[in-house]
Specification:
single chain, alpha/beta, Rossmann fold, Serine Threonine Protein Phosphatase 5, Tetratricopeptide repeat, DNA Cyclobutane Dipyrimidine Photolyase, subunit A, domain 3, 3 domains, six-stranded mixed sheet, globular
Length: 447
């Protein structure tokens, strides 16, 4: 594999003992560069390989809805790793305590981790770094072009990162090698008590799980094939119409790493479909998604108004005292009790289905800005609702999308208007010109 995907966090020689891959963001056995790299090193050094997942009992607003999707997906991971005779271990607790303790217990020779730009995960990695004395390496298994190779700074917008990524795609957008089936090493295998995992999590269990979206890598592949067979060719034409089902539906699987974005992009590029659809889909899958990672990595204030560009902060400040036609509190937003039937329909879609059409996400967030006292309250409200109800919440795409909608991140100044200032504006009438809003609203009874 391309060694540019690897960063050395803690240097040192690799001795005798298991190579441990700490799986976190990329929860899959196949098409996973971090796992492929860990196995390559294990085979080269004649050491066993162990895959470890550390389950924390709570995580930035995630509830049972998200934990269920993750835990059931991890069952797929175990089954696939068993096919390669690779032990899979789930630890429970604080990573800074559990990971070092486990490494010492098995006398590990190397720790490999996947990459995540969110600050809580980076803190976990730093805390583990401080408690171990073996080599520690990180592999970007989530982005097609490794984040630190694509850019060494926060990019202004898609048009600034696009050429940087595009020129590197020939080098990095490849297919994956297969894992190698190794000799059975059962001394590192521990029976996973899946029921115990559900009992230890301390999360909101009032939000229902989503039975209509099947977790796991096998389900993700089925969804991808469904997209290729029935939606891809008309993606450019119909993707922004929320009354049509032409989005890929891969977002939850990409968020939990149950499918590889690189594998999706590689297979997508081989499809014989409308060229505009292919261009539009790959723009979203590669450029926009990796721009969001860039934003969250190089701007650790990604979840606050401090992340907004200066022009946006200035403009919003100038309009902070503007009269709002409506003001709603969190409970009214949460239960879809606004006077805007279109917004309510979008909120109901998220409440019931754990997702919201991509075009409606922009409208949804911008209306929260319009109906709250300050941009700070708008950010807090949008992030809270997104992370509580969306299956793909707590994700760079979510933080970047909300910051774009409310604070002009990755955008430019527009015409000055009340409340919004120079932030791009969206309203009901604009939506009505793009799609049949009454059909979308009427469909909300199904949400």
């Amino acid at each position: 594999m391309n060694e540019l995907r690897v960063r050395i966090l803690k240097d040192g020689s690799i001795g005798n003992g298991p190579v441990v891959y700490w799986m976190q963001r990329d929860q899959r056995a196949d098409d996973n560069w971090a796992l492929i790299y860990a196995q390559e090193i294990a085979l080269k050094t004649n050491n066993p390989l162990i895959v470890v997942f550390n389950l924390v009992d709570s995580f930035i607003g995630a509830g049972l809805r998200q934990y269920y999707f993750m835990i059931e997906g991890l069952k797929d991971v175990e089954q696939r790793l068993n096919c390669y005779n690779i032990p899979f271990v789930i630890l429970i607790g604080n990573p800074k305590e559990e990971i070092p303790k486990y490494l010492k217990e098995v006398n590990a020779s190397l720790l490999v981790a996947d990459f995540n730009p969110l600050k809580i995960i980076r803190r976990w990695k730093k805390e583990v770094f401080d408690f171990i004395n073996i080599p520690f390496r990180q592999v970007d298994a989530h982005n097609i072009v490794p984040l630190w190779i694509a850019s060494d700074k926060q990019e202004f917008a898609a048009y600034t990162i696009r050429p940087k990524i595009t020129k590197l795609l020939n080098e990095f957008l490849t297919d994956f090698p297969e894992l190698i089936k190794t000799n059975v090493n059962w001394e590192y295998k521990k029976e996973i008590n899946w029921d115990l995992l559900y009992s230890v999590i301390k999360v909101d269990k009032s939000v229902s799980i989503i039975n209509s979206v099947i977790p796991g890598s096998r389900a993700a592949i089925k969804e991808l094939n469904n997209f290729f067979n029935y939606k891809y060719d008309k993606y450019a034409e119909l993707r922004n119409d929320p009354t049509k089902d032409y989005q890929s539906a891969l977002s939850p699987y990409l968020h939990f790493g149950q499918i590889s974005a690189q594998k999706v992009a590689y297979l997508s590029s081989l499809q014989d479909v409308n060229s505009e659809s292919k261009k539009a889909f790959l723009e979203e899958l590669i450029i926009r998604r990796e721009l969001a990672d860039n934003f969250c990595y190089y701007n650790t204030r990604y979840d606050s108004v401090d992340s907004f560009p200066d022009w946006a902060k200035k403009s919003l400040k100038e309009h902070e005292k503007d009269k709002r036609e409506y003001l709603y509190v969190l409970e009214e937003f949460e239960h879809a009790h606004t006077k805007d039937r279109l917004w309510n329909a979008a909120q109901k879609e998220m409440l019931k289905n754990g997702k919201m059409h991509g075009y409606m996400r922009m409208y949804w967030a911008k209306k929260i800005l319009e109906w709250t006292d300050t941009p700070e309250v708008a950010m807090e409200t949008a992030i809270y609702l997104n992370d509580k109800y969306q299956l793909d919440g707590r994700d760079p795409n979510g933080y970047a999308g909300i910051a774009w909608s409310i604070g002009g991140v990755h955008d430019r100044p527009w015409f000055d208007r009340e409340v919004f200032g120079k932030i791009r504006y969206m309203n009901y009438n604009g939506c009505a010109k793009k799609f049949d809003v009454e059909t979308y609203i009427n469909n909300s009874v199904k949400f």
